[in-house]
Amino acid sequence: MANGTTRRILVETKNLSKDPPPGISAIPDDENCRYFHIVMAGPQGSPYEGGLFRLELFLPENYPLTPPNVRFLTKIYHPNIDKLGRICLDILKEQWSPALQIRTVLLSIQALLSSPNPDDPLANDVAYTWKTRTSEAIIRAKDWTRIYAME
């Protein structure tokens, strides 16, 4: 099993470097092929546009039977991402399938930035603002992007 898993990780890594998803770089760590350094551009037309967000992605021992662990290292104001950078996304939990790949996960996270879901929040305070004072939440998300995600 371990060899098959390692082979899959190597194939996915090769595909990510050969054909990276638009606006996303995923670089495997030199020391650990299961750990990836991710840089994700904020999607155009979203409050995160212009920002470059650092994330970490780790493939657990039983990957692809269990989903990767992914979290934001860059602070972000988003109802589905908490202060620790954890992400509330169905394919990282109950909707995970071994047919999914790192690429799919990263594109799904990028899509989540374009369409926050305050009805399934991880950051309740942010979700509340997003639902009750949307324009204020968007301004705050843009401010945080400028402060934390722009060099």
TrEMBL record:
| SMART domains associated with the record | UBCc
Which GO terms of type biological process are on file? DNA damage tolerance; protein K63-linked ubiquitination
Q: Which InterPro entries match?
A: Ub_conjugating_enzyme, UBC, UBQ-conjugating_AS, UBQ-conjugating_enzyme/RWD
Name of one Pfam family that matches:
UQ_con
- Show the active-site residues: 88 (glycyl thioester intermediate)
Give UniProt keywords alphabetically. ATP-binding, Nucleotide-binding, Transferase, Ubl conjugation pathway
Q: Tell me the ranges covered by the UBC core domain, including all copies.
A: 4-150
**Gene Ontology molecular function:** ATP binding; ubiquitin conjugating enzyme activity
Q: Show the GO cellular component annotation of the record.
A: nucleus
Task: Give the highest taxon in the source lineage.
Answer: Eukaryota
Give the family this protein belongs to, as stated in its UniProt record.
Belongs to the ubiquitin-conjugating enzyme family.
Q: What is this protein called?
A: Ubiquitin-conjugating enzyme E2 N-like Protein
Q: Which gene encodes it?
A: AUGUSTUS-3.0.2_13777
